[in-house]
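TASK: fixed-backbone design
INPUT:
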């Protein structure tokens, strides 16, 4: 039977600012210096001295084009942040004016001939992991920034606090382009604005402007785009005035309703969405879907 050395007295770590101790039997956590550079192609990461991290997603330094690197990178980032004791709060959103554009892609793998790999390894595996990691690994307060038009607004809606640009629009185009909303957006919409409103949004591609999102209770504040991250930092600094344990426990309480809904619905609904790719649904193809969305945008003047 292993017995801890009774003569060892824990002392504050020389490596970390957080209240952890160094001990030869404890595997050290990865520090920001250990993981920051590997996320450089996808996330612009900064952290204040007191542990407030800002992560802005992008594509090779330009505004985001959705792709595998970003999709997988979300869970990888959340896992690294979650085990890092010196990151105390996360502010996350897009670089520039783009939150997530449903018509601009940066794909590294051709989809159609690789659909079996694509539907599991990329969409299902990475998609379920980043949402579950966001709720379960991040035991710190989170502030989501909707800095532009937002399909897949769930990334920001699952945060404890959500800020939106005054000219941004939340929408879900899955059904419009021949698919179903099962990859987590359905949970975020139902939880943030209720079942009937969410059903309508999912089945009609409703364009929810910033004021309506605020009225529905989906977001907390509407701001000019250029003020979003500054305001998030103001909120973060207030949160940081509370004790480390207090703010972390409060964040876990805030995440509890999401944790229950995600555990109950995410994997099953995501599996049903992926099943459609093999069910002979001819209009479910991302190239066709992108074109459908572009035509819709041109017709109705929304993005």
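OUTPUT:
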């Amino acid at each position: 039977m292993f017995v801890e050395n009774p003569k060892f007295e824990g002392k504050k770590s020389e490596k970390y600012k957080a209240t952890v101790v160094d001990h030869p039997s404890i595997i050290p956590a990865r520090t920001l210096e250990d993981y920051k550079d590997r996320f450089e192609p996808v996330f612009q990461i900064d952290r204040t001295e007191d542990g407030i991290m800002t992560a802005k997603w992008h594509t090779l330094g330009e505004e985001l084009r959705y792709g595998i690197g970003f999709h997988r990178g979300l869970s990888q980032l959340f896992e690294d942040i979650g085990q890092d004791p010196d990151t105390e709060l996360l502010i996350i959103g897009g670089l520039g004016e783009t939150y997530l554009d449903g018509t601009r892609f940066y794909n590294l793998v051709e989809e159609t001939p690789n659909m079996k790999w694509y539907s599991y390894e990329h969409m299902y595996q990475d998609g379920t992991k980043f949402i579950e990691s966001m709720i379960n690994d991040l035991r710190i307060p989170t502030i989501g920034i909707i800095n532009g038009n937002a399909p897949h607004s769930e990334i920001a809606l699952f945060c404890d606090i959500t800020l939106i640009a005054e000219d941004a629009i939340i929408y879900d185009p899955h059904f419009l382009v021949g698919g179903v909303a099962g990859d987590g957006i359905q949970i975020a919409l139902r939880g943030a604005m209720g079942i009937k409103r969410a059903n309508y949004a999912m089945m009609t591609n409703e364009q929810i402007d910033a004021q309506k999102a605020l009225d529905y209770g989906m977001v907390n504040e509407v701001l000019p785009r250029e003020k979003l991250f500054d305001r998030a930092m103001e909120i973060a600094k207030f949160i940081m005035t509370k004790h480390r344990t207090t703010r972390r426990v409060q964040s876990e309480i805030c995440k509890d309703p999401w944790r229950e809904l995600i555990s109950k619905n995410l994997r099953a609904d995501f599996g049903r969405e992926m099943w459609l790719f093999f069910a002979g649904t001819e209009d479910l193809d991302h190239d066709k879907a992108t074109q459908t969305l572009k035509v819709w945008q041109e017709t109705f003047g929304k993005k």
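COMMENT: Confidence is low (pLDDT under 50) at residues 1-6.
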